[in-house]
């Protein structure tokens, strides 16, 4: 099945990823323990249109980074499909085709200190994708391209001869962006690109990313735990909790009319910087251990609307209105106001 | 100096911290002064490297060598504590000033149960029996909202989740009923939903115990929730200090303005965030005059030559020449509020 319409760039269907966290074989035999699996991603579906920014938010351990890594192919999914431009990414046999597909997406990582090789000069780092994909062979042309990329992200071409340690966190993230742009990708997966940065530097990087999207027509999958950043960047947002998407909606709808109790509580817990003095609802409890998630709806131990059904059955993602989908029994049954 | 109503709980005067290195002396904190009164929460914000944690470490006497206090004074209830010998400082540390660190995993000893750690701290500072100390430990755990404290007191740190661990750290800080708690990024390692719980807890406990808190964080949102007053630091200096509401809603210093504008807000549709170009200067190359001048959009000649002191403007004090509308040579320390206010009105 091809889930792509004319403008859908990436679509993910029922994606699952499990990690084996069992004890070693001998211990399992001696202690008579079964294998244990951590369901990092448990049936996630979404699609991203060309030129838009789709964001995944959630607390640590909800599986958002795993989704990012699955999408770019750093992990193999246990089950489910990823369609990029209509093609099933994990079902391509020919190497050449994989290469051409891979060239069309890139990733920006969270920690700009760990994602640059400290023994390589900046120009070599930025030129690497060009060489790996064999886009240019003329050294002089590569040099020109690197200079152009560095200028594009707000650095000077002369910075190419420096080492990564000579740059601050924000500048390093610019280098990472330059490297990600080197093979002219259409799609960028950004895994918490600004969470290691100070707010004023974060503003610079977010502005840069928006500018690049406007000029190059990029599509972003934006992973973040910061709801305010997501509100600023994304067109559509998916909220994740323990490996599942609990709510997907347009950014405006999600932040103005959140439906799922988790989304509502998440929004209520953000420190109010405008100091409007509105009453705060504080979420009780913490995210459960994903190895032994609660049965039924995984949010039920923390949910004020939970009843018997929530403890038994896992809710499915159901469309409510205008592109907003929620997975919650209470919403489905109309138990909320 | 025994007048309690007049003397602030903590008073930092012209603090200067230096790091002698092979390539010369780095000035990490340069002429910083502020007060904290009893029961007050002072938020200290700034970007990484602004010197906010260092200020906290200097107050509690945990400055790592070769860092040293080169000048200035730290007064606790009027008594200087910046030059005390180690043995005497140990008596103050924990009893009068306690500290909450950023990472609850590394600030607890993994080899001892949380009960042992809390009891040890109580017995160090209080003259009570071990049995009473254990009861007090259980009471403290109850107070910080740990369910089943009678059992939990005998658990090891790894058996607690991140949020619960930070609650244990707060309980540890409260052991000896300190007058002042220095909380260094207490919620940075936590998720937003847990962060909200910890903030609420900290706020409640400080109110109940009348403990003053110096809350060091880079998160303006946390400050807006908890603090009474805010100090904004930039390159080892105070940029602006004032009541939280005034500072958040009506910042005066160009740096604070930029900082506030660069934070994405949930409610509003902003096309572009306010961008402060460039980055904070390295300690080796702090510019002459105002440290912010190369990045400031309203810079003028005087900013490049002379360093501004805190000047009263509106309801805050900002270290910015923009607000100095009197004769140039006057040293505005910011404590002559009345005359400053009059000047504001005439201007």
What does this structure look like?
- The complex is a heterodimer of chains A (337) and B (347).
- Chain A is α/β, with parallel strands linked by helices.
- Chain A has two domains: 8-22 and 32-104 and 186-274, P-loop containing nucleotide triphosphate hydrolases (Rossmann fold, 3-Layer(aba) Sandwich); 113-184, no CATH class.
- Chain A contains twelve helices and twelve strands.
- Chain A has helices at residues 25-31, 64-72, 95-102, 122-132, 139-152, 169-181, 199-216, 227-233, 251-256, 261-269, 308-312, 329-333; strands spanning 8-20, 37-49, 53-57, 79-84, 87-88, 105-108, 187-191, 219-224, 236-241, 244-250, 318-321, 324-326.
- Chain A is globular.
- With 347 residues, chain B is of the alpha/beta class.
- Chain B folds into two domains: 10-233, P-loop containing nucleotide triphosphate hydrolases (Rossmann fold, 3-Layer(aba) Sandwich), CATH 3.40.50; 248-346, no CATH class.
- Chain B contains twelve helices and twelve strands.
- In chain B, helix 3 (114-125) crosses helix 4, helix 4 (130-143) crosses helix 6 and helix 6 packs parallel to helix 7 (192-209).
- Mean pLDDT of chain B is 86; it is low at 327-347.
- At the A-B interface, helix 6, helix 7, helix 8 and helix 10 of A face helix 6, helix 7, helix 8, helix 9 and helix 10 of B.
């Amino acid at each position: 099945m091809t889930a792509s319409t004319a403008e859908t760039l990436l679509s993910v269907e029922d994606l699952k990823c499990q990690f084996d966290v069992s004890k070693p074989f001998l211990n399992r035999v001696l202690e008579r323990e079964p294998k244990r699996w951590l369901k990092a991603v448990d049936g996630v579906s979404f699609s991203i249109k060309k030129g838009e920014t789709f964001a995944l938010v959630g607390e640590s351990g909800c599986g958002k980074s795993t989704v990012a890594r699955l999408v770019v192919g750093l992990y193999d999914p246990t089950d489910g499909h990823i369609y990029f431009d209509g093609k099933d990414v994990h079902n391509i046999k020919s190497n050449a085709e994989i290469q051409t597909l891979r060239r069309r997406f890139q990733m920006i990582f969270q920690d700009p200190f760990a994602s640059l090789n400290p023994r390589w000069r900046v120009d070599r780092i930025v030129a690497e994708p060009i060489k790996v994909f064999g886009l240019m062979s003329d050294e002089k042309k590569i040099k020109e391209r690197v200079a152009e990329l560095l200028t594009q992200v707000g650095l000077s071409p002369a910075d190419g001869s420096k080492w990564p340690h000579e740059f601050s966190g924000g500048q390093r993230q610019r280098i990472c962006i330059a490297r990600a742009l080197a093979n002219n990708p259409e799609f960028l997966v950004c895994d918490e690109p600004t969470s290691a940065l100070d707010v004023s530097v974060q503003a610079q990087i977010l502005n840069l990313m928006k500018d690049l999207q406007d000029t190059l027509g990029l599509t972003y999958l934006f992973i973040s735990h910061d709801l305010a950043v997501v509100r600023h960047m994304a067109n559509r947002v998916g909220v994740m909790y323990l490996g599942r998407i609990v709510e997907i909606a347009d950014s405006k709808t999600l932040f103005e009319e959140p439906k799922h109790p988790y989304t509502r509580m998440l929004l209520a817990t953000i420190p109010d910087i405008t100091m409007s003095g509105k009453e705060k609802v504080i979420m009780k409890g913490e995210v459960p251990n994903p190895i032994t998630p609660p049965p039924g709806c995984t949010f039920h131990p923390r949910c004020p609307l939970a009843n018997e059904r929530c403890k038994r059955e896992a809710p499915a993602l159901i469309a409510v209105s205008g592109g907003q989908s929620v997975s919650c029994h209470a919403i489905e049954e109309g138990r909320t106001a | 100096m025994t007048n309690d109503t007049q003397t602030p709980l903590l008073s930092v005067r012209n603090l200067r911290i230096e790091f002698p290195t092979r390539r010369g002396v780095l000035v990490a904190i340069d002429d910083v002064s502020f007060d904290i009164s009893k029961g007050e929460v002072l938020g200290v914000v700034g970007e990484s490297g602004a010197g906010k944690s260092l200020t906290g470490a200097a107050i509690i006497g945990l400055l790592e060598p070769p860092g040293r206090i080169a000048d200035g004074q730290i007064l606790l209830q009027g008594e200087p504590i910046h030059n005390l010998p180690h043995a005497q400082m140990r008596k103050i540390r924990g009893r009068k000033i306690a500290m909450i660190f950023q990472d609850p995993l590394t600030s607890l000893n993994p080899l001892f149960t949380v009960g042992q750690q809390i009891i040890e701290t109580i017995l160090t500072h209080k003259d009570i029996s071990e049995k009473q100390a254990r009861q007090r430990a259980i009471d403290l755990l109850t107070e910080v909202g740990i369910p089943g404290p009678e059992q939990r007191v005998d658990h090891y740190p790894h058996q607690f989740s991140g949020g619960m661990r930070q609650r244990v750290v707060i309980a540890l800080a409260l052991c000896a009923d300190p007058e002042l708690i220095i909380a260094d990024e207490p919620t940075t390692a936590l998720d937003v939903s847990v962060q909200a719980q910890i903030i609420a807890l900290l706020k409640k406990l400080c109110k109940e115990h009348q403990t003053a808190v110096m809350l060091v964080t880079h998160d303006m949102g946390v400050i807006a929730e908890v603090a009474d007053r805010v100090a904004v630091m930039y390159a080892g200096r105070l940029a602006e200090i004032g009541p939280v509401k005034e500072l958040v809603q009506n910042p005066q210093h160009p740096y604070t303005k930029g900082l506030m504008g660069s934070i994405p807000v949930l409610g509003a549709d902003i096309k572009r965030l306010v961008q402060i170009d460039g980055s904070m200067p390295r300690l080796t190359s702090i510019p002459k005059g105002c440290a912010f001048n190369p990045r400031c959009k309203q810079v003028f000649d005087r900013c490049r030559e002379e360093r501004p002191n805190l000047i009263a403007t509106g309801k805050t004090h900002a270290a910015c020449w923009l607000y100095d509308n009197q004769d140039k040579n006057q040293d505005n320390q910011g404590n002559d509020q009345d005359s400053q206010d009059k000047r504001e009105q005439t201007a």
